[in-house]
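Our consortium's second objective concerns turning raw sequence data into structural hypotheses that experimental partners can test. To show how far this objective has progressed, the report includes one record in full. It was chosen at random from the queue rather than selected for favorable results. The single chain below, 179 residues long, was entered without modification.
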Amino acid sequence: MKIIRKLQLGVFTILILSICFCITSFALVYADVSVENNLFQTGTVKINLNDGKAIINEQEYIFEPGMTVEKEFFIENQSTWDVYYRVYFDNIKGEQLADILDADIFYEDKLLFSGKISELTKVNVPAADDELLIKEKRYLKIRIHFPEEVGNEAQNLTISFDIAAQAVQTKNNPDKLFD
C-alpha cells in the first residue's frame, strides 16, 4: 500500500511538473512571438567618386620638374545618412616618383589633404574636417606638383595610382573612425 501511495505521489508530481513545464514553454513562445512592430533597418554608405571615371588619364601628361597639373572631379554622397569622407591614393606603383610628387586636394579654396603621393594613403589620411550631407555632390580639385629642385634622379621614372574615396556615417561616430 505504501509503495502504491509513493508511486501515485510520484506520478502526480511528474504530471504537475509536466503541466508547469508546458505552461512556461507556452508563455515563453507566446511572449516571443507576440511582440510586434519592432522593426530595425540599417543604413547604407555609398559614395560616387567621379562616376568611376579616371581623373588623370594614363599618358595624359609627361611630368617634368616644375610642372603642376590641376584636375577637377567630384564626390557625391549617395548614402542614407551624412558621412565623413576621405580621398586618398591607392594601388601606387612607382614608389620613387610617389616619394617626389606633391599632391593637394581642395574643396573650393579649402585645403583638405596635402602631402607626397606616397603619404596620402588609406592608412595615413584622416577624414575631411566637414561632413558630406545626404545627396550632396561636391566638386574637388587635385593639384599634383613636380618640385623644380628634383634633378636627373627622376628621369625615366613612372608612376600609376588610383584615386579612391572612403566614407563612414556620421551618426554615432564622433571620432570619425573608419573600419
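The partners drew two points from this record. The helical segments are 2-34, 95-98. The first strand starts at residue 47 and ends at 49. Both points have been shared with the crystallography group to help prioritize constructs.
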